[in-house]
Design a protein that fits this description.
Blueprint (H helix, E strand, L loop, with lengths): L1 H23 L14 E2 L4 E12 L7 E10 L4 E10 L7 H9 L14 H7 L1 E22 L3 E20 L20 E14 L4 E14 L18 E16 L4 E2 L2
Antiparallel strand pairs: 1-10, 2-3, 2-9, 3-4, 4-5, 5-6, 6-7, 7-8, 8-9
Helix pairs in contact: 2-3
């Protein structure tokens, strides 16, 4: 009986110490990453490449752009990039432009009251000269995709936001037929500050090369026709309006260092 009582008393005395020891014991999984041995295709890597972009839904002139891109990925989910766009087709007319050109009088010996002659209308229509953009990219989604259960590829999806400048050019900024002081027509040719918003994705062909798709909206003030818009009989800054300019681009991008890191 005495032995039983002694064991009970000993157990009561040791229980707090045992509970404290259990509480202080650290699990080997504490502070461990959610995914081990993860291939980090972006973290602390430079990204550079070049491709082509095309404008969508422009009023008068479409643009086929040469688009170099340079990025640095601070982590696997956030990066900073600079993008250029240089118009290789300044004379590429939209279908709407062709319709207008066919409807306006071409012979300047024919009198016209309000409508401009075709050549004068074409002279003051501006087009995108070049764009220089900066953007922050946030990558909320990345992973691995299987095609036909045999072809595997890594991918990511990101949203982008930033700003930059857009250069607008025209065939003839101030045609002789404008007349008036200030003129009744004047091409809007300048370098405008622009907002840059969109989405993008990478499809990795190897651990150091990827196909990069981006769809962006360049938001800036413009008067694409170079004509009097608000009806005050002059063409000036009061005729400017905010415009959405959609651009889709496809690039081949390379990553450096060429060897991607593996997480612990």
């Amino acid at each position: 009986m005495r032995k039983v009582i002694a064991l009970l008393l000993g157990g009561i005395v040791c229980l707090p110490a045992m509970a404290r020891a259990e509480k202080e014991r650290k699990s080997p999984l504490t502070d461990a990453p959610v995914i081990r041995k993860r291939l980090e295709l972006r973290d602390k890597r430079f990204e550079f490449g070049v491709g082509a972009g095309v404008s969508i839904g422009q009023d008068f002139h479409n643009a086929l752009l040469l688009m170099p891109k340079l990025s640095y990925h601070f982590t696997d989910w956030i990066s900073l990039a600079v993008v250029g766009g240089f118009n290789a087709t300044p004379t590429w007319k939209s279908s709407f432009n062709n319709d207008i050109n066919g409807a306006l009088p071409a012979d300047k010996s024919q009198p016209t009251i309000k409508s401009p002659y075709a050549a004068d209308a074409q002279a003051t229509m501006n087009h995108l000269g070049y764009a220089l953009l900066g953007q922050v990219e946030f990558i909320p989604l990345s992973g691995k995709i299987a095609l036909l259960s045999s072809l595997f590829s890594y991918f990511d999806f990101y949203v982008l936001a930033g700003g930059g400048v857009v250069n607008l050019a025209a065939k003839d900024p101030m045609p002789d037929t404008c007349g008036g002081s200030p003129p009744k027509c004047q091409a809007f040719t300048t370098t405008e500050v622009a907002g840059n918003f969109g989405v993008g994705a990478h499809a990795f062909l190897t651990h150091w090369m990827a196909l990069n798709l981006e769809f962006r909206d360049l938001l800036y003030k413009n008067n694409a026709s170079g004509r009097d818009v608000n009806g005050d009989s002059v063409t000036d800054t009061h005729d400017l309006e905010w415009t959405n300019n959609w651009i889709f681009s496809l690039n081949f991008q390379f990553f450096a260092p060429f060897k991607a890191k593996i997480s612990r």
